[in-house]
Specification:
Elements: H1 12-21, E1 24-27, E2 31-37, E3 44-48, H2 57-72, E4 79-85, H3 94-114
Parallel strand pairs: 3-4
Antiparallel strand pairs: 1-2, 2-4
Length: about 120
Amino acid sequence: MGLPKRARLQHSREFNAVFEQNTFRVSTPGFLILAKKNDFTYNRLGMIISKKTAPTSVRRNLVKRLIRETFRQTQLGAFDTVVLARPPVNRETKTQLRKNLSLLFAELETKVGYQ
């Protein structure tokens, strides 16, 4: 199941705002997560998984599903979040991906909680 429309970053200007004004950044070799406070009362998510990072659509869709699943379980508050996948994503197992995403979002939750 996908995210509701209001919970997604849909336009390039929304992605650019996160890239230019991010206040929180966490990363592993496989992922980079950027976040910035938004003016809404809910979280929004944007994902960037290129063909270079995950060559097959099956792999890209798996990564997107895992990101959405982890995002739903995270309580950030009102933030715009962008997740960028990096090339090691293609070599990791589903279990490793899930674990890395959980750790990253937990770290992001901790950082956001301190602000």
